[in-house]
Amino acid sequence: MPRERLGRVEEITPAWLAERGLRGVIADLDNTLVPYGVEPPPPPDLAAWKRALDEAGVGLAIVSNARPGRTRRWSAALGVRGRALAGKPLPFAIRAAARELGLPPEQVAVVGDQLFTDVLGANLAGGYAVLVEPIEPGRGLPHTRWVRGLERRLLERYFPKTGVPGPPSGGG
Q1: What confidence tens digit (pLDDT) does each residue in 115-157 have?
Q2: Could you tell me the CA-to-CA distances from 46 to 32, 42, 74, 97, 132 in Å, in that order?
Q3: Parallel, antiparallel, or unpaired: how do β-strands 24-27 and 59-63 relate?
Q4: CA dihedral 33, 38, 40, 45 (to 10 degrees)
Q5: Residue-wise pLDDT tens digits, 71-96
Q6: Contact of 129 with 107, CB cutoff 8 Å
Q7: Is the distance from CB of 36 to CB of 67 less than 8 angstroms?
């Protein structure tokens, strides 16, 4: 399960990070930072978010299961390091990105839109797992769309929208 659920990545402000003792962000690319298939330049809200992180001295990296060319284009457009074909939920690329940010994983918010890749990978790496709503909930690879239904049921039962984990209902 994620440590927190948010609507959008832009809700992760420098103040939000500081309140939790976090000093960096590792973000998924597709459906977390940008919609599937969209190419640079970054939209204004994403560019403003990145500037706010920069001004606060917060490092950002991209760790994505997307193809190298796409990840490389977006990493260059945002001026950050990126790791493609990351193999999430395996934790290796997330840990490597944290090292590149000069931070231990426990000081990094690892943000994504999928429970079984992004959140599981964050937890396996020792990061602070943050689940955001997918930018385009109905889009993605066929297996991604199938898994979304299972994710939704698990989240409704074990992690209500309030962001406070709770025990399963029905005597648990």
Answers
A1: 999 999 999 999 999 999 999 876 666 666 657 667 777 777 7
A2: 11, 6, 11, 20, 14
A3: parallel
A4: -40
A5: 999 999 999 999 999 999 999 999 99
A6: no
A7: no
